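Q: I'm building a small set of examples for a reading group on sequence design. Run inverse folding on the following structure and report the sequence directly after it, with nothing in between.
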C-alpha cells in the first residue's frame, strides 16, 4: 500500500470514496460506470441526455443502449411490476427517453425486459444522488473502460448506506437560542442520508437517563422556511420544539431528506403534478418513486452518539416508530405531532393517512388548530 493510500485510509475506505465520486459525477450530468465482475454499465442521468449525447453513447456499443425504468414508474405506465424493467433503444432517441421516463401521457410502446443487477445498481445510485430514478445506460465489457470514466462497483453501491450510518460523527455544536426555546443547542453531524449535514437540536436539558422526547423531522424548504400551506411541516417543526421547551426538553433531528427522500428538484416536479390534480403519492409514482424513499437508521445512530437509549417519539408516521425500534432504541411512547389543517393541505394529509398509514385524526387536528383557508 502506498503512503498516500495509507493516509486516505485514515478518513474513509476506498469503496466509500468511489461511491461519493460517482454520486458527484452523476449529479453533474456526466456518465459513470457501474461494475460487477467483468461487466460494466455506463449510466447517465436522464435529465442530462440530449440527442447529441445519446448518439455519442451509442458509439460505445452500437444499438445496445437502454432505459432503466423503476417499478413505480412502470406501474404508472400501466404495467403491474414490482421490479425495475428495461426498454431497449437500438436507435438513439433522446425525446422518446424523456417521454418514457418523465412525461405524464407516456405509453409503453416496446417490450419491457426484467432489469439485471447492474440496472438495479444504477437506480440505487440515482436515489443516493437524490435524482429521478430512471437511468439511460449502455452495457460494456469492463475491459473496454478507460481511466477517463469514474467507476464504482455494484457491491460498493449496495454497502454505501450502511457505511454512512456507521461513519456519522459530530463535527460542531453551539448554543442557539430560539424564539420559543431560549435554551437550545445545535449539534451538527456529518454523514447519514442526503447530501448535506444533519442537525440535532437539543431543547432544554433533557435527562438522557430517562426516555427523551424526540422528533425526526425531514427537511422541508417550502414548509419550514417559507410557510407553505400545502403541508403541515413548518407547524410540526416549531410546534414540537415549543412543546419540548415547555416540558422536560427533548431532541429534534433535522434530517436532509427533502421531499420524502426524493430531493428538492423532484419535490417541485411532484408539486407541479399536484397543481394539475394528482395525489401526492400518485405524483411521486409518475416520477418513479415509491411511497417513501427515506431511511431512519442513521437518525437512530445520531441519538446513540448523543447518549440516548430510550425515547418518546413525536410523530404521526408509523415507519419512524418502527425504524427506531428496529435500530435497538427503546420506544416507550409515541405522541402525535399536528399542524394546522388548511384548505390547501387537507387532501395531502388525508392521503398520508389513507395511503401511508399515518396516524392523523382530523377532529383532533381541528381541535388543536381550527381549519384555515
Amino acid at each position: 500500500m502506498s503512503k498516500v493510500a495509507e493516509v486516505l485510509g485514515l478518513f474513509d475506505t476506498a469503496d466509500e470514496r468511489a461511491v461519493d465520486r460517482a454520486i458527484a459525477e452523476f449529479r453533474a450530468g456526466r456518465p459513470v460506470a457501474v461494475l460487477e465482475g467483468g461487466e460494466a454499465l455506463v449510466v447517465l442521468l436522464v435529465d442530462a441526455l440530449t440527442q447529441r449525447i445519446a448518439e455519442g453513447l451509442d458509439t460505445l456499443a452500437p444499438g445496445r443502449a437502454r432505459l432503466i425504468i423503476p417499478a413505480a414508474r412502470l406501474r404508472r405506465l400501466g404495467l403491474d411490476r414490482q421490479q425495475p424493467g428495461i426498454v431497449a433503444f437500438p436507435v438513439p432517441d433522446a425525446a422518446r427517453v424523456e417521454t418514457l421516463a418523465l412525461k405524464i401521457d407516456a405509453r409503453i410502446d416496446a417490450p419491457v425486459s426484467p432489469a439485471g443487477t447492474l440496472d438495479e445498481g444504477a437506480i440505487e445510485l440515482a436515489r443516493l444522488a437524490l435524482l429521478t430514478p430512471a437511468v439511460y445506460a449502455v452495457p460494456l465489457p469492463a475491459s473496454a473502460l478507460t481511466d477517463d470514466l469514474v467507476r464504482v462497483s455494484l457491491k460498493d453501491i449496495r454497502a454505501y448506506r450502511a457505511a454512512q450510518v456507521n461513519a456519522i460523527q459530530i463535527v460542531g455544536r453551539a448554543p442557539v437560542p430560539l424564539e420559543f426555546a431560549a435554551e437550545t443547542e445545535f449539534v451538527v453531524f456529518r454523514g447519514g442520508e442526503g447530501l448535506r449535514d444533519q442537525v440535532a437540536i437539543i431543547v432544554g436539558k433533557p435527562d438522557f437517563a430517562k426516555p427523551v422526547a424526540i422528533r425526526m423531522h425531514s427537511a422541508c424548504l417550502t414548509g419550514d422556511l417559507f410557510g407553505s400551506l400545502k403541508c403541515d411541516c413548518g407547524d410540526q417543526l416549531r410546534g414540537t420544539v415549543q412543546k419540548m421547551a415547555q416540558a422536560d426538553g427533548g431532541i429534534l433531528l433535522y434530517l436532509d431528506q427533502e421531499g420524502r427522500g426524493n430531493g428538492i428538484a423532484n419535490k417541485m416536479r411532484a408539486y407541479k403534478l399536484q397543481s394539475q390534480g394528482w395525489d401526492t403519492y400518485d405524483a411521486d409514482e409518475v416520477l418513479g418513486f415509491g411511497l417513501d424513499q427515506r431511511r431512519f437508521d442513521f437518525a437512530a445512530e445520531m441519538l446513540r452518539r448523543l447518549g440516548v437509549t430510550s425515547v418518546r417519539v413525536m410523530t404521526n408516521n408509523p415507519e419512524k416508530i418502527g425504524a427506531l425500534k428496529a435500530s435497538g432504541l427503546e420506544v416507550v411512547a409515541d405522541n402525535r405531532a399536528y399542524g394546522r389543517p388548511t384548505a390547501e393541505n387537507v387532501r395531502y394529509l388525508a392521503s398520508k393517512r389513507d395511503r401511508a398509514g399515518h396516524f392523523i385524526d382530523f377532529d383532533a387536528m381541528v381541535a388543536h388548530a381550527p381549519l384555515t383557508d
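The CA atoms of residues 69 and 175 lie 46 Å apart.
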